[in-house]
Specification:
2% strand, globular, mainly alpha
């Protein structure tokens, strides 16, 4: 029996670039996706998970595409990487499909294989829920100003208060999303 070598952990620079790219794609602040003091470490978890699902050159191509335009406004970055101006959305590049999967991963805490389409306007069944931590920290809950059933970081009685603004939940409401 041969031992499979454990892959080296991703570099901090790649994880930070992944978080910055994800910020532009999701409309959240990079500092929310990868806080300076980060006990959960979702940016690293998501980056390494996505890297394990696709070939390294595909992830490198997406990050390189982001790095080439990182100084652009977040909406421009998202439109470019997701290829929203493509005349036929069924003929996107593999990097655009990967970018879509990364958006779904951040919002739902699940991995949807790049380019696999669902039916009737619905997403395909998730290949895998990444973890319970990923699910409970999905960005969808922040956008809804809510939390998953049976789990809340709020204190008892929070429901008697008017919810905070989307910006208080980490959504970049100033310039279309991103960093």
């Amino acid at each position: 029996m041969t031992d499979t070598p454990t892959p080296a952990p991703a570099s901090e620079a790649d994880v930070q670039d992944f978080a910055d790219m994800s910020a532009a794609l999701t409309g959240f602040l990079s500092s929310v996706l990868k806080p300076q003091l980060d006990p959960v470490g979702l940016a690293r978890t998501y980056y390494e998970f996505a890297l394990a699902q696709v070939e390294a050159p595909q992830m490198k191509a997406l990050l390189d595409a982001f790095r080439a335009i990182r100084t652009q406004p977040p909406q421009t970055i998202a439109d470019t990487l997701l290829e929203t101006a493509a005349p036929d959305s069924t003929k996107l590049s593999q990097t655009a499909y990967l970018a879509q999967s990364i958006v779904a991963m951040w919002y739902l805490g699940s991995w949807y294989p790049p380019g696999v389409l669902g039916g009737g306007g619905f997403a395909p069944v998730a290949q895998q829920v990444i973890s319970s931590v990923a699910y409970t920290n999905g960005l969808a809950w922040r956008v809804m100003q809510s939390h998953p059933m049976g789990y809340s970081q709020f204190t008892v009685g929070y429901w008697s208060q008017v919810p905070g603004s989307l910006s208080s939940f980490g959504v970049n409401t100033g310039n279309g999303g991103g960093q």
